[in-house]
Automatic annotation (TrEMBL):
Source domain of life: Bacteria
Protein name: SRPBCC family protein
Native species: Flavobacterium jumunjinense
């Protein structure tokens, strides 16, 4: 299952956004209002929980300076990645798009597609808070 957020244009440099997203504690600023838990485990890992959803632990898997950050689920029970693609348009104008890629059975995919789509859309729309 692959989902993408709308592209968000920000008046920030790609370097600034990359550095902000590389620091996992900044993801708390991007979370939706219904967050029940957010905890930084270490510099590469954080755990969060939304009301009515299981808690999820994300680990930084890959970071390509100023262009891409890949976070993945720490648990193999829900194998997925969350990718932030950063595209510099001008010196201080950058597009960010999030994509979610997960391997789920059809029943699970049907149940989580809506909530996950809304979640990554919220993360993207909150990018201006960085």
């Amino acid at each position: 299952m692959n989902l993408e957020s709308p592209k968000v244009s920000l008046d920030k440099s790609s370097e600034y956004l990359f550095n902000a997203l590389t620091d996992v504690k900044n993801f708390e600023k991007l979370m939706p209002d219904n967050i029940a838990k957010f905890e930084v485990i270490d510099e590469n890992c954080f755990e969060f929980g939304l009301k009515g959803m299981p808690e999820i632990k994300l680990v930084k898997k890959e970071a390509i300076p100023n262009s891409k950050i890949v976070l993945g689920a720490a648990s193999s029970k829900l194998p997925f990645t969350l990718i932030a693609n950063i595209t510099e348009i001008e010196a201080n104008k950058t597009d960010v798009q999030l994509s979610f890629d997960g391997e789920f059975n059809p029943m699970m995919a049907m149940m989580i597609k809506g909530p996950i789509g809304k979640f990554i859309e919220t993360l993207a729309s909150n990018m201006h808070k960085l």
